[in-house]
Design brief:
The chain has about 400 residues and is of the alpha/beta class. Helices cover about 30% and strands about 25% of the residues.
């Protein structure tokens, strides 16, 4: 999940309202520049270096090596004069001004900035990155080579949605947007950067008659659907246990029960596997996605169970479908066999390989194959006490 460097040449304006991530995006670009050996000057009009470095470190950015100028509450005329002297003497490769808004609120400030940028910095081929508060005079956007606009909105459930739109880019196509989030100790992460290590598909044969329902082995994405009390968790534990005892690496994610409860059930089959409790809150949408990809890349499971993951739809609302499509695609790319249990599918049944429907009939559980990408050996079955097909 290595992040590709963001390369904007010339003058770049990062525009957005408070809290949209302007400074964090600038930190990421500065971090990448330092890592490649470029000399960076950071000019801050509202915070000192100690606090700046501390905040950057919390996001995983090492910025101690840049030059830092505390230009607190500077007047435009004195600022630009000192700025040009400093740049001429130190010759940085990248200059970040955070934020340029108070310097361009009047005609004089805009004239001074234009003179500094086009008569001094551009001839020296110095790249300039400026954060700009939304509502600032459009002058900055007009003269910028690149205009990057950041947005922060919330769904009805309170889930934050962050988006970066490149409205203008010198020498590159503009007019595109990318989703991102800001994650503690990781920084600003674009969702399209999250890619699992590719692997061929794993066929998980549990050695039980349950394999007959999915054409001989669990492979790709499988949903087990049924109302509360129909036996979804019991069946999921059986599948996980059978796979684990046959040597497959299994990770069990439980969205409602506690890990010890799942482990107690697994003891009935003499099995042991990793169990993770997943507890969701609306503000953790980006972190939830990131941690999922991290788990797939680092643990490299053969079989992943997500028990009761339809809770994501209750917490994240409409965003949950997008989230699940992204994660199901990641599992396919990583070759991981997936089994998820849900009370209802929220439209996901159209995008998975296998769907098994459960229902209780008196003292037994019936399983019906609703969908299978391989011809099932049994279209339905009645489960015995040992959860085998009778």
């Amino acid at each position: 999940m290595n992040a590709a460097p963001l390369e904007f040449k010339g003058l770049t304006a990062i525009v957005g309202g408070p809290g949209t991530g302007k400074t964090t995006l600038a930190m990421r670009i500065a971090h990448e520049a330092l890592r490649t050996g470029r000399k960076v000057l950071w000019v801050s009009l509202y915070e000192g270096k100690d606090l700046f470095v501390q905040n950057a470190s919390k996001l995983g950015y090492k910025l101690e090596g840049l030059d830092f100028w505390e230009a607190l509450l500077a007047q435009p005329e004195s600022f630009w004069g000192r700025f040009l002297d400093y740049v001429s003497e130190n010759k940085p490769d990248l200059v970040v001004v955070d934020s340029v808004t108070p310097l361009v609120e009047g005609p004089e400030g805009r004239s001074l900035m234009l003179n500094a940028l086009y008569r001094a910095l551009r001839p020296m081929s110095i790249d300039v990155l400026m954060t700009v508060e939304r509502g600032t005079p459009l002058f900055v956007e007009y003269i910028a080579d690149n205009v990057v606009r950041l947005y922060l909105e919330r769904t009805e459930e309170g889930v934050p949605e962050r988006k970066m739109c490149v409205d203008k880019a010198r020498g590159l196509p503009g007019g595109y947007c990318k989703q991102f989030d800001i994650i503690g100790s990781v920084g600003l992460v674009f969702f399209d950067e999250l890619r699992p290590a590719p692997r061929g598909p794993v066929e998980v044969s549990t050695g039980s008659t349950l394999d007959d329902l999915v054409g001989g082995a669990f492979m790709g994405n499988t949903l087990i659907v049924g109302p509360a009390g129909s036996g979804k968790t019991t069946l999921a534990v059986k599948i996980a246990s059978s796979a684990a005892t046959r040597g497959y690496k299994v990770i069990y994610r439980t969205f409602s029960e506690e890990p010890w409860q799942i482990r107690e059930r697994a003891k009935e089959y003499g099995a042991d596997f990793d169990v993770m409790a997943i507890r969701l809150k609306p503000p953790t949408y980006g972190t939830h996605i990131y941690e999922f990809y991290k788990l797939i890349n680092e643990a490299k499971p053969d079989l992943l169970i997500s028990d009761g993951f339809d809770v994501e739809f209750k917490v994240y609302g409409r965003k949950a479908f997008e989230l699940n499509m992204r994660m199901l695609g990641a599992l396919k790319e990583a070759g991981v066999a997936f089994v998820g249990t849900m009370a209802r599918t929220y439209g996901l049944a159209n995008h998975v390989d296998n769907v098994l429907a459960l229902r209780r009939e008196k003292d037994s559980i019936m399983v019906e194959v609703v969908k299978s990408f391989k011809k099932p050996k049994r279209p339905f079955c009645k489960l015995t006490e040992k959860l085998e097909c009778s």
